[in-house]
Design brief:
- It is a single chain.
- The chain is of the alpha+beta class.
- The protein is built from 17 helices and 31 strands.
- Among the domains are: about 230 residues, 2-Layer Sandwich (Nucleotidyltransferase, domain 5); about 100 residues, Alpha-Beta Plaits (2-Layer Sandwich); about 140 residues.
- The strands form ten sheets. It has a seven-stranded antiparallel β-sheet, covered by helices on one side.
- Helix 2 packs antiparallel against helix 9 and helix 2 packs across helix 10.
């Protein structure tokens, strides 16, 4: 998709005199052709540098040249809707290809800064590589008049992977105690006030070990204007949100007054909803912000940015910065390319990741601690978002998909021996790739040294006489990206690989190529959580009177659950005097929402009915299953079932999990299956 970008990147690198060296020919011809190459260090102890040209024998056609950057760099991602807005703003910009002439000047303004601190931060960003994943750090700044730099009200990593067409979001609790370089253990949001963008970036990099390609600072005035440009966003509001700042200490927060239920939320209310945390936790607040980002993308997709492109460009120019490495400035074409990529990403491939397992600090009152293991596990989920568990859980726990044949795997990743060889000249590339394979379930993968022949693309060879080796090699090649391939090993390839004196011993042999960007796609076979028995209570008459009253008031037929999650009450946890069933209209659509709660804020879930056959929230389900003639739309976030929906007679119904997905899958499925008409 980004071949033009890649070509520009290659052309931008300086030419250097180079020694002669061997380079593996992708067409498999033998012997390897001798070409001019750029000198470089060995792989895991030996080996040569990168090739500057690849050609055939006399008169052979020339191929695309790959020139790697001088240092190992990973991932990339130029436009991530800022904290709660930018992932999709750029997608909107992409629609305006016809306005490219105007975009160029505007994008120059967006991608360049005169702020000294932001320029300093750019030196800590990694150059984005063509066709590889990219990561952006979005900083939502809480800057108030007369208060200097302020604090980072929110920080979120956003990662776009063109190989899996996925977006992953990782949020950090603002009160999480971390090591802030030069300042000791402090809440993560203080990094910004202490050193602005450079220190915030350095803190997140040290905490996660993730290379970051782009920095997106966003203030709240910009947030409101961007959301306002799109006319607001439809959001599933889980419960009542209310605060009136009367000057007292108990209410010294931003004003907010939002009723529960699916509805259109505009700029000021959207900001208040995203930032709210008066009566819940940082974890719930992060989940609320990620919910906003996910639904905002849907708003962008439906909005049709071309109709208001000039207004959008003007707002972006004044309110948004997308800053890349100062070694290679971002240009308009790259942003447009990634905007189109975002538009192509299925909505079900947006995965929200949070540091959920935290404890109260014993030394710093009101602050949070997370173990290194919890942080590492969360980062792993971010780097390898789970896109497959939902389908597998639906098959196991709901019903088999009759359209999909159940194929038994021909190999077991945990028992398949794999050896990895360095064919790209980057030190420790084979060891790094072997470690990632182990993390992805290939438990017997290990480094086997360097290949003296340099490879452009990663090749996964296999011994065709070993059962399952061919399928295992194909799966591994997929993990390395679309430019990798698997092929049977023959005498020529075997001799070529063994030039370092280490014989081939395993049935699967991976030779790392120069296009290896430093990470792998998720494993092809998901590891599912154990199936749980549903903790639910069956009571067909519970709340029947309430549902009948709502049906009469709404003047639309309704369905109600006859099974409820054990311990849940039909109420708003903080507004017990407010009726749990809300009958209302939004966008001209009649709607009913009922709030359920098993605690004050972390297990609040709801049932929504709306006279709207295609609300944006029901677009792009993870999968579907048919139960007793009713087609269920299943929406997963990783292995957590976030929403179960169905449509009947022009009315859309859905059961919405809590913001943090605390209602178990088994209970969600049992409740969804139990819905019956209120009248009948």
């Amino acid at each position: 998709m980004l071949s033009a970008t890649a070509a520009k990147a290659s052309a931008a690198l300086p030419a250097r005199p180079a020694p002669r060296m061997k380079v593996h020919r992708p067409d498999g011809a033998a012997p390897p052709t001798t070409v001019a190459g750029r000198g470089g260090g060995g792989g895991n102890g030996a080996g040569g540098g990168a090739a500057n040209a690849i050609g055939g024998a006399s008169g052979g056609s020339r191929m695309r040249v790959y020139n790697p950057p001088q240092q190992k760099r990973r991932r990339r991602w130029p436009r991530v809707v800022a904290m709660i807005a930018a992932v999709c703003v750029i997608a909107g910009v992409a629609v305006g290809g016809y306005a490219y002439w105007y975009l160029q000047d505007t994008i120059t303004a967006i991608t360049q800064t005169s702020d000294k601190k932001q320029q300093e931060a750019q030196a800590g960003l990694a150059v984005a590589l063509p066709d590889a994943p990219i990561t952006a750090l979005v900083i939502g700044e809480d800057r108030r008049p007369g208060e200097g730099a302020g604090r980072s009200d929110s920080m979120m990593l956003v990662r776009i992977d063109p190989r899996t067409k996925s977006i992953a979001m990782l949020s950090f609790p603002r009160d999480l105690l971390v090591d802030v370089p030069g300042h000791g253990r402090r809440p993560i949001n203080e990094a910004f006030s202490l050193g602005q963008e450079p220190l915030a970036l350095a803190t997140v990099k040290e905490l996660t070990g993730v290379e970051i390609n782009y920095l997106v600072p966003l203030d709240f005035r910009a947030f409101q204007r961007i959301v306002g440009t799109f006319g607001g966003v439809y959001l599933p509001i889980d419960r009542r949100y209310f605060n009136k700042n009367d000057g007292s200490a108990a209410h010294a927060y931003t004003d907010i007054n939002i009723q529960p239920g699916y509805q259109l939320i505009r700029g000021v209310d959207a900001l208040a909803f995203a930032r709210y945390r008066h009566t819940d936790s940082d974890i719930v607040r992060m989940a609320r912000q990620q919910t906003f980002v996910r639904e905002f993308k849907k708003r962008i997709d439906r909005w049709g940015a071309a109709t208001r492109i000039i207004e959008l460009i003007s707002i972006l120019r004044d309110n948004l910065k997308i800053l890349g490495s100062n070694e290679k400035p971002v240009d308009a074409r790259i942003l447009l390319d990634y905007g189109r990529l975002i538009a192509d990403i299925p909505r079900g491939n947006m995965v929200q990741v949070r540091i959920d397992q935290t404890t109260s600090s014993s030394t710093n009152a009101g602050k949070l601690e997370a173990s290194p293991q919890e942080i590492q596990q969360t980062v792993d989920q971010f780097m390898h978002p789970d896109l497959k568990s939902g389908e597998a859980i639906a098959t196991r726990d709901v019903a088999k998909d009759p359209k999909q044949a159940q194929v038994k795997p021909k190999f077991n990743p945990a028992t398949m021996p794999v050896e990895v060889r360095n064919g790209n000249g980057t030190p420790a590339a084979a060891a790094d790739a072997a470690w990632q394979l182990v993390e992805n379930g290939w438990k017997l993968a290990q480094s086997a040294g360097d290949s003296l022949v340099q490879y452009l693309h990663t090749i996964v060879y296999y011994d065709g006489s070993r059962a399952g080796a061919a399928d295992a090699a194909a799966a591994i090649a997929t993990a390395f990206g679309s430019d990798s391939e698997s092929k049977p090993i023959d005498a020529v390839a075997k001799a070529e690989i063994e030039q370092n004196g280490i014989p081939v011993k395993q049935p699967v042999i991976v030779v790392i190529g120069k296009t290896y960007a430093g990470d792998l796609a998720p494993p092809p076979v998901p590891v599912l959580p154990d199936k749980e028995e549903a903790q639910v209570v069956r009571d067909p008459t519970r709340d029947l009177l309430m549902w009948r009253q709502a049906e009469r008031k709404a003047t639309i037929p309704l369905m109600m659950p006859t099974v409820i999650y054990s311990g849940a009450e039909t109420r708003d946890p903080l507004f017990s005097s407010q009726p749990p069933a809300r009958v209302y209209k939004t966008g001209g659509h009649k709607a009913v929402y009922v709030t359920y709660s098993a605690d004050s804020y972390d297990q609040v879930f709801g049932v929504q009915a709306i006279q709207w056959s295609d609300p944006p929230i029901l677009e792009g389900p993870t999968t579907t299953r048919t139960i007793q003639g009713r087609q269920l739309l299943l929406f997963f976030n990783g292995d957590s079932l976030q929403r179960v929906a169905w449509k009947d007679g022009g009315i859309s119904y859905w059961l919405e999990n809590s913001l943090t997905g605390r209602i178990p899958n088994s209970a969600m499925i049992a409740m969804a299956k139990s819905f019956k008409p209120v009248s009948g």
